[in-house]
Amino acid sequence: MTRTSSLFHVAAKRRAVLDSFARSNLGRGGFVFCHMAVKLNHTLVDSRDRDASALFLSELLGIDPPLVLGPFALVKVGDELTLDFRHVEREIKPQHYAFLVSEREFDEIFARIEKRQLDFWADPHKSRPHEINHWDDGRGVYFEDPNGHLLEVITRSYGSAGVQTKNPHPLVAEKLERKDQAADGSTKAAPH
Q: Is 143's pLDDT higher than 60?
């Protein structure tokens, strides 16, 4: 068993243990994890030119134009998620934004990247210029917006192909342990 498949197995086992624990301790005063439907609703994106930056993203992704709301230009990138561009005068610290798209959408977006003659890379370190990646047997590409934010378009979520893929993702993810969780996946009771 490879390290990656082992990690997936451990994660599934931990989930089963936590679910069992939650069922067995309901109403007994034990510590129970609550699973909430938490969704990211919006995040702020700093820019030198709010409108130009928001239009750049919406045009490249081929999505609806931004909606201006007060000092923000909102780009809707999911059912409920918006990237809220704002103008700032201070130094902009580049951020990374990744977008999961279909194969057809990838082709269309990549065509727009090439048409605008934008620099692009296969990796986030920009060590593979003018290439796309094929991680998880999908396709991915990185490029910058006018403010230096690193944008990424992928057709497969990282790790989605597991270990049985021709082109596995080069990173191996390890799960961080909660402070109240033992190494074997069991959960400690909350102090009384």
A: yes
Residue 122 has which token pair?
Answer: 């296969």
Distance CA 139, CA 156 (A): 7
| Chain centroid, CA 104 distance in Å | 20
pLDDT confidence tier of residue 158, bands split at 50, 70 and 90: confident
Please answer whether residues 57 and 65 qualify as being in contact, where contact means their C-beta atoms are separated by less than 8 angstroms.
no
Take residue 98 and report the two structure tokens written for it.
């990744």
CATH number for the domain running over 39-154: 3.10.180.10
Strand order in the sheet with 67-69: 42-47, 82-87, 72-76, 67-69
What global pTM score does this model have? 0.71
Strand 96-100 vs strand 150-154: parallel, antiparallel, or unpaired? parallel
Return the SS3 of 106.
helix
Q: What residues form DSSP beta bridges with 141?
A: 153
**pLDDT for 161:** 65
Q: Which sequence spans correspond to the domains of the chain?
A: 39-154
Of 150, 149, 60, 77, whose CA–CA distance to 113 is shortest?
Answer: 60
Q: Which two tokens mark 4?
A: 């990656």
Residue pointed to by tokens 């030119």 = 49
**Strand order across the 150-154 sheet:** 96-100, 150-154, 140-144, 120-121
